[in-house]
Amino acid sequence: MARITAARSRPRMTGTQRRAQLIGVARSLFALRGLEGATIEDIAAGAGVSKPVVYEHFGSKEALYTEVVNSEFDRLLAAVTEALGADAGPRVLLERAAYSLLDYIENHTDGFRILVRDAPPSQPEGTFSTLLSRIAADVEHILAKEFSSRGLSAEVGGMYAQMLVGMVAMTGQWWLDARSPDKATVAAHLVNLSWNGLTGLQKDPALGHIPGGIPGSLPGGAPMVLTLSAVLVHDGEGRILLVRKRGTQRFMQPGGKLEPGEDFRQAAAREVNEELGLRVEAADLSDIGHWYGPAANEANTFIDAGLFGLTLPGPFGSGADPVPQAAAEIEETLWLTPAEAFARTDISPLLRDHVLPELLAAEAGTPQ
């Protein structure tokens, strides 16, 4: 007698399961083809259902698209908000937020493509711009507190928040297709650029290098820019050497202008030897960065400075050799701890705004 085998039917999805399936299929198709390019027929075929099933759950293609967009909007906003809501300092929050965006792009690529491409008809102003505005509001709150603690105007926090969020977002859009280097490396470089830029913020920034001057600005046109090298000299007691040049009021690091044919390192070694009576080779200096900002003693002048470090045996005054001595245009020298130097009001902007904050943060173990 012939056996009759009943055909196995697929388990029937619940309404919630079917809705989630349709959203997943639609997300992939919308990311690939956009709102106009994807059709209800494509979505139904991808889900293995008829067109009426799609309409039963969402009513229209536009409504389904809005559902997909809102889902991704909430997912990304939740990730970044969680990163920014941690109980941590601003540097840590910046790292977490940058990484969370790139992590979302890596794990939800289709969702990010949809967010940055087509706005749903119900949100013609653009979903991605709305998302960035929400994130910028959180960042503004963080920056306002940080600016206030540094004596900067908290009122400009909103503007800087837009700049910061825009930079991270544009990098994310680039990395969406580039995918190299990896997300941790990209996040680290983002933080490097943004954090070090925030660290060196000037209280009252102004454009100073527009040809012919800036309309409405003070007379005098664009300021002069001096290219020079400066050397942070340490002794064996954790002190740094400050110098004051003849005819000036502010203390600064040893150093001076580059001569024709010199690079920053060569100029640094020559200046230290001339100003302090030492015999230092360029190779003895360690590179500690670059700085651009207002000059200490010249009005309407900015400096573009290469920064170098030099550690001498010391402590000086105890017979140690070599002993730095005021020479050439140097009228006075001081050996001070970074804290003692920072407490003074007669130090150069380079020391006050860049070098000493970095030294003090390193001593305190605070990440920069």
Automatic annotation (TrEMBL):
Residues 223-364 form the Nudix hydrolase domain. Residues 39-58 bind DNA. SUPFAM superfamilies: Homeodomain-like, Nudix, Tetracyclin repressor-like, C-terminal domain. Transmembrane segments: none annotated. The keyword NADP does not apply. InterPro entries: DNA-bd_HTH_TetR-type_CS (IPR023772), Homeodomain-like_sf (IPR009057), HTH-type_TetR-like_transc_reg (IPR050109), HTH_TetR (IPR001647), NUDIX_hydrolase-like_dom_sf (IPR015797), NUDIX_hydrolase_CS (IPR020084), NUDIX_hydrolase_dom (IPR000086), Tet_transcr_reg_TetR-rel_C_sf (IPR036271). Keywords: DNA-binding, Hydrolase. Residues 16-76 form the HTH tetR-type domain. It comes from the Bacteria. The keyword DNA-binding applies. This is TetR family transcriptional regulator. It comes from Arthrobacter pullicola.
